[in-house]
Backbone:
C-alpha cells in the first residue's frame, strides 16, 4: 500500500498491488491522513466480508504519516 500524488495539496491515490497477480487498484482521497486511508480498509472489509482477510492477509506500507496511526483500523 502506498500513496501517490503530484501536489502536496492533493488529490491523493491510495494504491494496493497484489504481488501474485500484478494487479494494482487505487482509491482517490482528498486528504492524506491515517483516518482517510483506514476508512478504505474498513469499507473493503465490510464489502468483502470473509474474503477480505484472504486478499489482505499482509499489508506493507512505507513510513508515511498517513500510515502512522493504526488506531483508526477496526
Residues:
Amino acid at each position: 500500500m502506498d500513496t501517490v500524488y503530484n501536489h502536496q495539496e492533493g488529490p491523493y491515490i491510495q494504491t494496493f498491488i497484489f504481488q501474485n497477480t500484478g494487479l494494482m487498484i487505487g482509491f482517490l482521497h482528498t486528504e492524506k491522513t491515517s483516518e482517510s486511508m483506514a476508512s478504505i480498509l474498513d469499507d473493503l472489509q465490510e464489502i468483502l466480508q470473509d474474503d477480505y482477510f484472504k486478499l489482505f492477509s499482509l499489508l506493507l506500507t512505507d513510513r508515511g504519516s498517513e500510515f502512522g496511526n493504526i488506531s483508526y483500523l477496526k
User: Anything to note?
Assistant: The chain has a mean pLDDT of 91.
